[in-house]
Structure to design on (397 residues):
């Protein structure tokens, strides 16, 4: 997206056209481009497509009709508004530097917690777009640097309180990668420079990254935040402090409409064995962030629950535990995986099926039993303490 295109898309008549046709099919507009000879319809169609994606992902930016959105990968890779605000809630200070500026979502919200913000980005196109959008959003404390993170650091005169890094997770063939060594910039080169500056560092990585491998590659990690939105794991955050030498705290966060579920635990807490039990009255399934963070024993001990099996990661109790960070169910029955035995629990022949530590997939279970998807019944196929393979028939609590 060139500066000339930004100028074109910012014209009042173009913005008005986008607003009037926002709910139309972008492809259909392109096919009718001959009807609008004075407008860049293909580029307008791209804006409409991007705006539709941004409506739920970036509602504040979407509401500003002057904001211009990038096409394709840049919008897909950028943080959502809700996760960017979460990052901003963790930090504050005088100066923050984003070494991988991109579309600028994270720095926009981080800049609200600092007196000065530095945006560093090697793509001239993204720098131009960020400058334009920040002006329209009235972010006035940001300086822009069109260079690589390495070059910026080699010429930096004054350090920052916080350096933020969101490495590009695409290779030369534009294929997704998630291992630290495959991302750009190369953290093995960047981090020593930042640690010398005695500044705090916040790194965003893919939720697919193995946390143990990440800790082997990163030093001085004080906190690991596993961030989910509506129980879908979105990103890993590694908060680094130069003088920190102990085991990091793991923070499992699930951002929900109107509230946030947060569960913290240490490596020492996770090493404490939980109680085990056959199924009692209630069943619990931790949220995606706790599962990713590996808080399997910690969550049981913190809420006074018993595990069904060491490898099942399902929990049980006699009395209902309020405010559990995940899903809670009342156990209505326990059955073998048999169409005949399950029939009495499923008058509509429907159920929501989850598999935990069980030798069959959900698809295989549906094929074997003929149970359709949906309804108000929840089936958990799992292995119990006595190694028995059972199906727990549950209702949402």
């Amino acid at each position: 997206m060139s500066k000339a295109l930004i100028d074109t898309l910012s014209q009042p008549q173009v913005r008005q056209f986008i607003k009037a046709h926002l709910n139309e099919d972008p492809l259909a507009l392109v096919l009718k481009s001959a009807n609008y000879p004075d407008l860049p319809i293909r580029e307008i169609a791209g804006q409409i497509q991007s705006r539709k994606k941004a409506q739920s992902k970036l509602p504040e930016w979407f509401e500003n009709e002057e904001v211009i959105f990038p096409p394709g990968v840049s919008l897909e890779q950028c943080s959502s508004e809700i996760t960017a605000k979460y990052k901003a809630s963790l930090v504050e200070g005088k100066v923050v530097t984003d070494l991988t500026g991109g579309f600028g979502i994270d720095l926009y919200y981080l800049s609200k917690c600092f007196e000065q913000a530095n945006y560093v980005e090697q793509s001239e196109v993204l720098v131009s777009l960020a400058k334009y959008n920040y002006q329209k959003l009235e972010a006035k404390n940001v300086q822009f640097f069109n260079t690589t993170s390495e070059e910026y650091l080699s010429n930096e005169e004054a350090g920052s309180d916080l350096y933020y890094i969101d490495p590009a997770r695409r290779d030369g063939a534009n294929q997704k990668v998630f291992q630290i060594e495959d991302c750009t910039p190369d953290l093995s080169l960047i981090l020593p420079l930042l640690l010398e500056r005695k500044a705090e560092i916040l790194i965003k990585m893919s939720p697919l990254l193995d946390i143990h491998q990440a800790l082997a590659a990163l030093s001085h990690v004080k906190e690991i935040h596993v961030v989910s939105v509506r129980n879908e794991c979105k990103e890993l955050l590694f908060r680094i402090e130069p003088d920190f030498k102990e085991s990091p705290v793991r923070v499992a966060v699930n951002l929900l409409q109107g509230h946030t579920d947060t569960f913290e635990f240490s490596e020492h807490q996770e090493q404490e064995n939980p109680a085990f039990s056959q199924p009692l009255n209630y069943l619990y399934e931790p949220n995606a962030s706790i599962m990713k963070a590996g808080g399997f024993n910690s969550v049981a001990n913190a809420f006074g629950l018993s595990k069904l099996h060491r490898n099942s990661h399902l929990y049980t109790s006699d009395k209902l535990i309020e405010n559990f960070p995940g899903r809670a169910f009342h156990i209505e029955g326990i059955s073998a995986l048999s169409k005949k035995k399950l029939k009495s629990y499923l008058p509509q022949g429907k159920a929501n099926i989850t598999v935990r530590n069980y030798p069959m997939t959900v698809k295989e279970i549906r094929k074997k039993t003929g149970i359709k998807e949906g309804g108000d019944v929840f089936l958990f196929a799992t292995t119990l303490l006595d190694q028995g393979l059972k199906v727990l028939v549950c209702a949402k609590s």
